[in-house]
Amino acid sequence: MMEPTPAPKIECRHLWKLFGPDPERVRPLLTQGVSKTDILTQTGHVVAVQDVSFAVRPGELFVVMGLSGSGKSTLVRCLSRLIEPTEGEIWVDGVDVMKMDAAALRQLRRHQMSMVFQRFGLFPHRRVLENVAYGLEVQGMEKATRLKKAQELLDLVGLAGWGHKYPHELSGGMQQRVGLARALAVDPHILLCDEPFSALDPLIRREMQDELIRLQKMMHKTIIFITHDFLEAVKLGDRIAIMKDGVFVQVGTPQEIVSQPADSYVREFTKDVPRVKVLTARDVMRPRTPFPPNGYSPTCPPSLTLESLIPLVMDHDDLCLVLDEDALCIGELDRTLVMQAMVGG
To answer: Which residues in the chain are classed under CATH 3.40.50.300?
Structure first.
């Protein structure tokens, strides 16, 4: 019996954001097919987010990926109403954020949502430990208790022994770890990450991506992660939304987007992705009605990547059987299927 699908942690319905003095006058022009560029030229209004709807499951790492100016940073700031949407609905745990008053919004931001920015936003006059404890201080937690919890978070992100330092004494990667620890200190249900690693050197950036993956396996937060780097999106995301001109062009798993790009815009992003690291046995197998394996053919789980499949199919002439969690064969593949998938077939 299948388990019921959990209710969304976050849900946006027909969200719009237009910057300018009279967005209500401009909004109908978009439904008439007038372009963003023409609206800017004719009215001076900037169309940042257009009719975006999506839902994020509890514990999901949902990546919004797009180029500069696509509207992704505006979108994530609308979720906590740091930027007021022009129109639409935002639901968090079944509560309509758009109907919250100032006091309720403060509670949402202090207890349910934390944000990690591209620029670390640390207080230069406070030591690292005090920076991490800041959100707990705002909540009114007693000093000894909040510093103890802040120290636990510093240990968790690999900064044990650095709490007495000031931010300028830390490297960029270490400062971003402090920012991540500060966001986690208030134990939020939701993390909103706006290109948090884009200012870091490539090696440190990869380390921070690995750190986020490690922490997510431990803490199972609901995360919305903004990036302009498709490789980063593929590495981190359970699902990815590709955004262009304020619109979601495609939403899907990394495997779906790499193997089935919706249009030429998405296809351009995926062309340099190493398919062997993204596509899995489930993506390339020939589906079969479940049956017990024969006992002599090689087998693999559906989640095995092409990178790991290559030696398995190259070393055997038999079909490789794909087994589900009940040890039943749900598909089969061979070296021809794997090689076709590698080259985009």
So the answer is: 10-273
Q: Provide, for the chain, the percentages of residues in helix, strand and coil under a 3-state DSSP scheme, each rounded to the nearest 5.
A: 40, 25, 35
- What is the C-alpha to C-alpha distance for residues 182 and 190, in angstroms, rounded to an integer? 13
DSSP H or E stretch at residue 62: strand 61-65
> Residue 331 belongs to what H/E stretch?
strand 329-333
Neighbours of 87 (CB within 10 A): 15
CATH number corresponding to 277-342:
3.10.580.10
pLDDT tens per residue, range 267-303: 988 888 888 888 888 988 999 998 888 878 888 899 8
Superfamily of domain 10-273 in CATH is P-loop containing nucleotide triphosphate hydrolases (3.40.50.300)
Assess contact for 258 and 279: CB atoms under 8 A: yes
Q: What three-state secondary structure class fits 311? A: helix
Name the strand (E) or helix (H) holding 76. Answer: helix 72-79
Q: What percent of the chain has pLDDT over 90?
A: 47
Q: Are 266 and 242 in contact (CB under 8 A)?
A: yes
Please write the tens of the pLDDT for every residue from 94-142.
999 999 999 999 999 988 999 888 776 789 999 999 999 998 898 889 9
